[in-house]
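Worked example 2:
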Amino acid sequence: QCYLAVINGSASGGGYELALSCEHIMLVDDGSSRVALPELPLLGVLPATGGLTRLVDKRKIRRDYADIFCTTAEGIGGKRAVEWGLVDELVTASKIEEASLVRARLLAGTDDRSDRKGITLTPLNRRFSGDQINYGYLVVEINKENSSAAFTLYGPEEGCPGELEGVLAQGAEFWLLQLARELEDAILHLRTNRPDINCWVFKVVGESRILNSYDSFLLDGVGNWFLEEIRLFWMRTLKRLDITSRSLM
């Protein structure tokens, strides 16, 4: 995936760090738009969301430029921002909309996903029954007395399809994908609506042979775009779980 950042105004601190994660940064040339990492001169702390790392390692900015930039509270804009590599392109305000569309089409043209067959993510079947939340492969039981939630993850009854075509045929009902979506939905639901629950317990029910067949299929499919998307989905879901484990009260 390619991301384009268009800055019309000032991108300071986290705003510029977000732009740094993109493949291409466009800045409006109006005399006032600029980029900045003012944490050091204003707060006495280093940019902590990857700002310095992306400047030097990703964008290959000279270290002396990075030092000056990070100690300049007002930031840098205009031609100097392009010359130093802080942004990729400078565009006048009257042409920014047209230029950003052209750049977006160029970036889209470099993507090799034109021959990929996607799937439709159908709505999840989430059902509430008293203190229980039921999904297809996940059940969450809430115990109000001890403020806990028990997550039971159920494995599939049949082994993993041996071919990618079989996985695509199952679509959103493919076990690894459906369970990841259900688990993420349950995590977000409890974090948002049940702050009184401060202990989560997890249990997995299923036949190890079948579960291992899915693990092997996912690991053997390195390089396949669809399986890579599922792996990234699981990474995001487990990261949500990790953050939750450090924020439950």
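The chain has two domains: 4-109, 127-245. Residues 17 and 49 are 7 Å apart (CA to CA).
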